[in-house]
Amino acid sequence: MKLSKEQQRKRRKIRIRSKVSGTAAKPRLAVFRSSDAIYAQLIDDKAGKTIAASSSLKLKKAKGTELAKQVGIDIAKKAAAKKVTTCIFDRGGYLYHGRVKALAEAAREGGLQF
Fold this sequence. Notes:
Blueprint: H1 5-17, E1 28-33, E2 38-44, E3 49-55, H2 64-81, E4 88-90, H3 99-109
Parallel strand pairs: 1-4
Antiparallel strand pairs: 1-2, 2-3
């Protein structure tokens, strides 16, 4: 039986999450992308709290990777305001390509280290 793309992504996500966990000092930068938006959260898994969040819904309307870059810069600014400099990147089962890669690189340019 062949798995759908969504089922394959969920399997990859479970595999990644078994190895990746965030703390208050080094939160997890979780990425979720839908067909029209991209979301990023800094999460402290020990306390079960979201430290900062950003999404393309609240930013200027651009297209694709440009919008993802804006989200990456925005999450880096919010992290700096909360005095977070390092994090662990959680790509959420998506391939490190396209919008996910653009968000990660923009977050690095904004000052986050991972």
